[in-house]
Design goal:
Blueprint: E1 21-28, E2 37-44, E3 49-52, E4 57-59, E5 65-73, E6 77-84, E7 87-89, E8 93-94, E9 99-105, E10 110-120, E11 125-127, E12 131-136, E13 141-147, E14 151-153, E15 157-166, E16 171-175, E17 178-183, E18 186-192, E19 197-205, E20 214-223, E21 243-247, E22 251-255, E23 259-268, E24 274-282, E25 289-291, E26 296-299, E27 303-312, E28 320-332, E29 338-350, H1 354-373, H2 391-420, H3 435-442, E30 445-446, E31 452-453, H4 464-495
Parallel strand pairs: 4-12, 14-20, 22-29
Antiparallel strand pairs: 1-2, 3-5, 5-9, 6-7, 6-10, 8-9, 10-11, 10-12, 13-15, 15-18, 16-17, 16-19, 19-20, 21-23, 23-27, 24-26, 24-28, 25-27, 28-29, 30-31
Helix pairs in contact: 1-2, 2-3, 2-4
Length: about 500
């Protein structure tokens, strides 16, 4: 800018070709009446500078707010505007003289442009120029589930469900390439597959304004193999966990006329609760047992519950082997699937031989006591020197013991043998007293906890040949006992 002079009003126009700081000075040299004077004006041609703090890309989401921010470096901002997609926005906020922002919500996915225009107090103006802003499409989300499992037995009722979490399009469910159902929020299919095979289920959504297309899949494997849990029974679900029955005992032996309590533990390790609709017993007479519960309204997942069975075997019950079958039917409260569980307890019912056994033991004890009463018997060899008065009684007592054992052994073997060949045995509960026990009573002895002498024995007029006859009979009985014991071994071997 060059100097210019004038005696009156001074006008000067200059074209500034570069930005920078400038000064303009006007002065008066003075004359005879006025002193000299001058004034200087300072100005610049520098445009405001700025910094953008917002990103140029964002992903779409429902109710999302998108913000556009700028920081201006200028002494004073006199004007600032935003043009968004060629529309000027006036609702601009600021937190200071240099920081400004503008926001918009629910911006659809797509490409946009915006620009900031800034003017400072000296009239210097700047613009950001058009800036591209991209709102990208969001990937939809949904879940594909099955109940009871992706691996099931043939004929199992199975439900495959596709549920939308977010997205704009409808939900579609395909099975092996064919659409089986659609819905705004979910699509499902319940099927009872009667043939083996692998079936691919695909859950998918088509592309929309704000969401991309997306799909997920899984295979339903159907097989005719039967899953048998350790507690027995058949299963129609192989989902994580099991519904099982565990008996407290699997083999029982009881006598007629006895009682016993056993328990069955029902366990639910599935992911859902179970309604046990029925608990039943089969395999034995219904009058022989009682259950403390026949149903369980809700067996929560991860819990167990015991069912107690009281067994009362009647005195007139038929001896033999029985299979007690415990059966429980449960319903999955989530999927509705029915599960049947069964376990077996093996019961052996024996006839009550307690009285006969005690008779044998008492007879044996009596023989020992009678022998002990003879003061002259000091050892086995001395037995031969017993007072001849007691020898008949000793021989009679020994014969009685052998006869009792033979009688009981023969009865037991007959019972076992008849049981093996399948013939029912009717127990004779009114067995006659053994004749030789009665004979002892006649000689002054009676059966109690031990044989005791109630009076002096009568003098028996037993001649030597009669004693010999008793000894012969005892030998015969011992031989018969050996034969019976051998027969019992054969019966046991045949039972095995």
């Amino acid at each position: 800018m060059s100097d210019t002079t004038s005696s009156s009003l001074l006008n000067n126009t200059a074209t500034l070709t570069s930005s920078g700081y400038y000064s303009l000075t006007g002065y008066w040299a003075g004359n005879e009446n006025y002193t000299s004077a001058e004034t200087t004006y300072y100005f610049d041609t520098i445009a405001p500078t700025y910094s953008l703090t917002s990103a140029n890309i964002s992903e779409y989401d429902v109710n999302k707010t998108y913000s556009f921010n700028i920081t201006v470096f200028a002494a004073t901002v006199s004007s600032l505007t935003l043009e968004f997609n060629n529309t000027t926005r006036s609702d601009i906020g600021n937190s200071s003289d240099t920081y400004f922002w503008w926001s918009i919500s629910d911006l659809p996915a797509g490409n946009y442009t915006y620009r900031w225009n800034i003017t400072n107090d000296l009239g210097n103006m700047t613009t950001t120029g058009n800036i591209n802003y991209n709102v990208t499409k969001k990937t939809p989300s949904f879940v594909l589930t099955v109940s009871p499992s992706w691996s099931v037995n043939t004929g199992t009722s199975t439900t495959v469900n596709c549920s939308k979490i977010n997205g704009e399009d409808i939900v579609r469910l395909n099975k092996s390439g064919t659409t089986v159902n659609t819905g705004s929020y979910f699509a499902f299919e319940t099927t009872t597959q009667l043939t083996d095979g692998t079936f691919t289920y695909v859950c998918w959504m088509a592309e929309s304004q704000n969401y991309t297309s997306y799909s997920t899949s899984n295979n339903l494997v159907v097989s005719s193999g039967t899953f048998v849990p350790s507690s027995g029974g058949t299963d129609n679900t192989t989902t994580t966990g099991q519904f099982t029955i565990t008996p407290s005992e699997t083999n029982l032996t009881m006598n007629v006329g006895s009682s016993r309590v056993i328990s069955f533990t029902l366990s639910n390790t599935l992911d859902n609760d179970i309604n046990v609709t029925s608990i039943t017993i089969s395999g034995i007479n219904s009058t022989w047992y009682a259950l403390d519960k026949t149903a369980i309204s809700r067996l929560n997942d991860g819990t167990t519950e015991k069912v107690r069975m009281t067994l009362n075997i009647p005195a007139d019950a038929e001896a033999g082997d029985y299979q007690i079958k415990f059966k429980a039917i449960g319903k999955n409260l989530f999927s509705g699937a029915t599960m049947t569980r069964e376990t077996t307890v093996y019961l052996t019912v024996n006839s009550n031989l307690t009285n006969e056994t005690e008779t044998v033991e008492e007879a044996a004890i009596t023989a020992e006591e009678i022998a002990a009463e003879n003061e002259t018997a000091s050892n086995v060899t001395g037995f031969l020197n017993i007072n001849s008065e007691y020898i008949p009684y000793m021989i009679l007592a020994l014969g009685t013991v052998l006869s009792t054992v033979i009688f009981l052994k023969r009865d037991l073997i007959t019972h076992n043998l008849m049981g093996i060949v399948g013939v029912k045995i009717v127990k004779d509960t009114k067995k006659k007293k053994i004749s030789r026990l009665a004979s002892l009573k006649n000689f002054g002895y009676k059966l109690s906890e031990n044989f005791t002498k109630t009076k002096e024995p009568k003098k028996l007029d037993l001649k030597e040949e009669k004693v010999h006859d008793l000894e012969t009979e005892i030998k015969r009985d011992m031989k018969e006992l050996e034969n019976i014991l051998e027969a019992e071994k054969k019966v046991k071997k045949k039972r095995k």
